Amino acid sequence: MAYNEELSLRVQKRLLKLNIDFFEKKMFGGNVFMINDKMCIGIVKDELMLQVLDAKYETLIEKNHVRAMNFTGKTMKGFLYIEEEGLKKESELNQWIDFGLEFAKFGVLKSKKKK
Question: 33 with 22: CB under 8 angstroms?
C-alpha cells in the first residue's frame, strides 16, 4: 500500500516553516524525513511514525491513537505509530512532529550489535 502523501506534505510544510534542514528517503514502504542524519519522522501507510527520546517513550505510548512500532514482528522501542485519527488538527500533528524534532536534536542513535 502506498503511503499517505497528503500527510507527508503536511509534515514537509511544517519542517519548511520551521526552517529545518532535512531530506526525504523512501523506507518501510513509506516516506521518512531525515534530520541530523537521524530517521525521526516518517509516514507509513496512513500513520505518522516517530522516533522519540527514551525518556518520553513510556508516557507517549499511553496516549490515544498511539501504538508501538512493530514493523518486523518485534516491538521497536523508541519508535511510535500515531494513527490518522490523532492527526486531524494541525496542532496535533505539530505536537507530534515536535517530539520527532526533539529526538533529532538530542537523541542518541543506538549502535547495532554485530552478530
Answer: yes
| Cell 508516557 belongs to residue | 59
Q: Is 34 helix (H, G, I), strand (E, B) or coil?
A: strand
Helix (H) or strand (E) holding 56: helix 54-60
Q: How far apart are CA 66 and CA 86, in angstroms?
A: 8
74: left (phi over 0), alpha (psi -120 to 50) or beta: beta
Annotate 63-88 with b (16+ C-beta within 10 A) or e (fewer).
Answer: eebbeebeeeeeeeebbbbbeeebbe
Query: What pLDDT digit, counting tens, does each position of 71-86 carry?
Result: 678 888 899 999 999 9
In the Cβ-directed half-sphere of 73, how many Cα atoms lie within 13 Å? 0
Residue 90 and residue 10 in contact, taking contact as beta carbons nearer than 8 Å: yes
Beta carbons within 8 Å of 114's beta carbon, 6+ residues apart: none
pTM for the model stands at 0.90
